């Protein structure tokens, strides 16, 4: 497949934001086959030289004037909505860093703006492109665990000084909510959460969640910005054993239930009679960010649909709001039926 835009030319791309994540986008975009990175925007300029020789525009409008086919939005979360709407008004397709927006109300406006104009919009939920997670999802779809019992995630690490506009729920827990629903094919029917504020900032820095999914699977998510140890682990347990996915190393390990019993009774008591084979799967590990960009490029060219649509991004923001509402009220929240807004009604409601 030759990755070309209209008239057989490479797609012309722009980048908005040259922060820590934006610089990684610039690196990948500058090497992406069939795509030319033609301009970037950042009010702080390009002190790290991440723009790889392309012009630094002074505004989104100036970037649009360069004749771009799409833009990647890697600016702070609270700016996603107005930048996304400006791009939609200009007829520009967009890949927007997660979360899609800081609130479901803002996210719903983005969904309508892109859909009404027939534009391709996606949310950069990068964890979906991790080799271990994709392998795990395929094995769950193939019923390798049988019935699912529980999904447990642990996502913790040091406080990121670069993030000040949202808390750990919108920045990190959103990954686990998205991945759990996506991997299992189930919806959250209830969420109970607790948050804490240990770092002296206005937003939460620790979250503990218990959720129930539509087929009875229980989800547990532990997320914080308070640990000196970085951890990104997902454990899925079913009636045939469990999978452990480590997205830091892209490793997937399978722990099978045993079919026999040890004759050593004391060892049975210590180790458990259901212990079986342990398999760590070999796989070609690709950089998730590169795979994500390839998928969006292919979607623009009509060659693939492996992207996280804006409506999916909106749905996950609603789940984060349910989490925060639960923590605020000390109650279990039912996310209810997500009522996608019509052009005349641009709101999203949570039934609590």
From TrEMBL:
Q: Which Pfam families match?
A: GFO_IDH_MocA, GFO_IDH_MocA_C3
Q: Using the record's annotation, list all stretches that form the Gfo/Idh/MocA-like oxidoreductase N-terminal domain.
A: 12-124
Q: Which InterPro entries match?
A: Gfo/Idh/MocA-like_OxRdtase_N, Gfo/Idh/MocA_Oxidoreductases, GFO_IDH_MocA-like_dom, NAD(P)-bd_dom_sf
Q: Tell me the ranges covered by the GFO/IDH/MocA-like oxidoreductase domain, including all copies.
A: 133-243
Q: What PANTHER family does the record tag this protein with? A: BILIVERDIN REDUCTASE A (PTHR43377)
Identify this protein by name: Gfo/Idh/MocA family protein
> Native species of this protein?
Streptomyces caeni
> What taxonomic classification does the UniProt entry list for its organism?
Bacteria, Bacillati, Actinomycetota, Actinomycetes, Kitasatosporales
């Amino acid at each position: 497949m030759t990755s070309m835009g209209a008239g057989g030319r490479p797609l012309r791309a722009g980048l908005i934001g040259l922060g820590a994540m934006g610089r990684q986008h610039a690196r990948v975009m500058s090497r992406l086959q069939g795509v030319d990175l033609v301009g970037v925007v950042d009010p702080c300029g390009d002190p790290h030289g991440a723009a790889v020789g392309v012009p630094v525009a002074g505004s989104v409008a100036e970037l649009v004037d360069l004749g771009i086919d799409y833009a990647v939005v890697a600016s702070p979360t609270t700016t996603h909505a107005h930048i996304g709407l400006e791009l939609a008004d200009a007829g520009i397709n967009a890949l927007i860093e997660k979360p899609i927006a800081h609130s479901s109300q803002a996210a719903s406006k983005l969904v309508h703006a892109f859909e009404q104009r027939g534009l391709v919009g996606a949310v950069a939920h990068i964890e979906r492109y991790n080799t271990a997670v994709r392998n795990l999802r395929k094995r769950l779809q193939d019923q390798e665990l049988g019935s699912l019992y529980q999904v447990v995630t642990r996502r913790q690490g040091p406080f990121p000084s670069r993030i000040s506009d949202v808390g750990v729920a919108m920045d990190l827990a959103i990954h686990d909510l998205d991945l759990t629903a996506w991997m299992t094919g189930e919806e959250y029917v209830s969420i109970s959460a607790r948050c804490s504020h240990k770092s002296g900032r206005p937003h939460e820095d620790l979250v503990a969640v218990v959720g129930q999914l539509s087929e009875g699977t229980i989800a547990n998510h532990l997320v914080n910005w308070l640990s000196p140890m970085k951890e990104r682990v997902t454990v899925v347990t079913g009636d045939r054993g469990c999978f452990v996915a480590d997205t830091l190393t892209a490793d997937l390990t399978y722990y099978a239930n045993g079919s026999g019993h040890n004759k050593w009774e004391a060892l049975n008591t210590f180790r458990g009679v259901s212990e079986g084979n342990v398999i760590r799967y070999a796989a070609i590990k690709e950089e998730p960010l590169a795979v994500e960009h390839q998928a969006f490029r292919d979607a623009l060219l009509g060659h693939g649909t492996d992207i996280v649509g804006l409506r999916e991004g909106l749905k996950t923001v609603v789940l984060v709001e349910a989490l925060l509402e639960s923590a605020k009220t000390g109650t279990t929240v039912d996310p209810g039926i997500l009522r996608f807004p019509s052009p005349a009604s641009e709101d999203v409601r949570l039934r609590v």
